[in-house]
Design brief:
With 275 residues, the chain is of the alpha/beta class. 41% of the residues lie in helices and 14% in strands. The protein is built from ten helices and eight strands. Keywords: Isomerase, Pyruvate.
Length: 275
């Protein structure tokens, strides 16, 4: 059985954030993920999660910024991580420390570290990226049960994003070789960039590096059963492989109303994933 988590950056967008937490719990979810927790004080957010019986399963390290006010603006200003960006080491390290503080307060075991928009990256930028990841993994080792994740993101949705293939991610994990650094496998991005997501899953799941999975239909990023993603066989492969992490539902419901979200879930979750 797969454990599925609602991505609150995509679900219930007609509701304020706190209401989204309540809606997820009412719809039967036990886990939630979203892009950023930094607009809310960590202990306030932890209290809301506890009140609704929800587990925080994933969030992103800051997209940018060297202090909290900048962090809260960074995504809207176009930042998508700083790990591979020369001159942004201070922002990267501040962001990692902030993310780890939130992870500890929220009892969250997975944090996604974005690599940044860097379309003209060179060998030096790659070496910087690896060095930053190694530093961050060592930092995470100070906290119990926190693993940092890297995720390949397609360049159609995020032009110029440095890390855009599973192979890039795998090679980085091998080179850094730290137990607190792992892979976030996004079936949507993988299918768009590399195709044959079933073969890609078999290849990388077998490495043991995959610690979180996200799913959405291709090409529209709607429910997994809308489009060409072979979601039924993929879910079956995930279960057969023994994957025991969460499956994040990072898709845009075709009908964003509360009833539409529920109907979309009812329709495609019949394939075997359960709340």
């Amino acid at each position: 059985m797969l454990r599925v988590a609602a991505n609150l950056s995509f679900f219930y967008q007609d509701m304020p954030f706190e209401a989204r937490l309540a809606a997820a719990a009412e719809d039967g979810f036990k886990g939630v993920e979203y892009l950023s927790p930094y607009d809310m004080e960590p202990h306030r957010l932890a209290g809301l999660l506890q009140a609704h019986g929800l587990e925080q399963v994933l969030f992103n390290a800051p997209a940018g910024g060297s202090h909290l006010a900048q962090v809260r603006r960074a995504w809207d200003e176009g930042w998508r991580g700083t790990a591979s960006l020369p001159g942004e080491q201070e922002a990267f390290r501040y962001g990692i420390d902030l993310a780890l503080e939130y992870a500890q307060a929220l009892s969250c075991r997975r944090v996604h570290v974005m690599s940044g928009i860097n379309p003209s990256a060179n060998r030096g930028d790659r070496l910087l990226w690896l060095k930053q990841l190694a530093w961050a993994a060592e930092r995470a080792a100070r906290y119990p049960d926190v693993t940092l994740l890297i995720e390949a993101i397609n360049r159609e949705d995020m032009p110029g994003y440095w890390l855009h293939t599973q192979q890039q991610a795998y090679e980085a994990l091998v080179e850094v070789g730290h137990p607190r650094l792992a892979m976030q496998f996004d079936a949507y991005h993988c299918q768009k960039v590399e195709g044959d997501v079933l073969a890609q899953w078999q290849k990388y799941a077998a490495t043991g590096w995959v610690k979180h999975v996200q799913i959405a239909g291709v090409p529209g990023r709607h429910e997994p059963d809308v489009g060409v993603l072979p979601y039924g066989p993929l879910l079956a492969q995930m279960q057969a492989s023994g994957y025991d992490g969460w499956l994040g539902l990072e898709y845009r419901p075709q009908d964003a109303s509360r009833a539409g979200v529920r109907e979309g879930l009812r329709r495609w979750l019949a394939q075997g994933a359960v709340l």
